Amino acid sequence: MQQDILHYLRRSGWVTQSVEAVLPQLPRWERHLRSRGVTAIPRLGVRSWSPAESRAHSELNLLMRQASRQRDPAFEHHLRNLTGIRSYKP
């Protein structure tokens, strides 16, 4: 799964330095995703995702946003609501 996460990061437009910066976190990301029920990382560029793939996309995007130097609290809040990390807050 870690190789799939790396592929996803690169396809998402992350530069090499950003990918390398999160390499030590990948085992934790994989454990977190598996604990949240994600069993596979979706492929980017697919026109239609299943509900499970959409959830995986949202879960991974939240991790990516939280690892970024440029944080967007409003979007992270939206992703936490979407993924159910915590109970919904308007």
Total domain modules? 1
* Structural class by sheet pairing and helices: mainly alpha
H and E string: HHHHH
The count of DSSP E runs of length 2 or more, i.e. the number of strands, is: 0
Could you give the distance between the termini?
A: 33 Å
Give the assembly state of these chains: single chain
Summarize model confidence as the mean pLDDT: 88
The poorly predicted ranges are none
Our Rg estimate from Cα atoms comes to 13 Å
Helix content: 55-70%
Please report the number of helical segments: 5
Strand % is under 5%
Shape annotation:
globular
Q: What's the story with the biggest beta sheet? A: none
Quick tags:
mainly alpha; globular; single chain; 90 residues
Describe it.
The chain has one domain (2-83). The protein has helices at 2-11, 16-22, 26-35, 51-67, 73-83. It is globular, with a radius of gyration of 13 Å. The chain has 90 residues and is mainly alpha-helical. Helix content is 61%, strand content 0%.
Ordered list of secondary-structure elements with their pairings:
Elements: H1 2-11, H2 16-22, H3 26-35, H4 51-67, H5 73-83
Short summary of the structure?
The protein has 90 residues and is mostly helical. 61% of the residues lie in helices and 0% in strands. It is built from five helices and no strands.
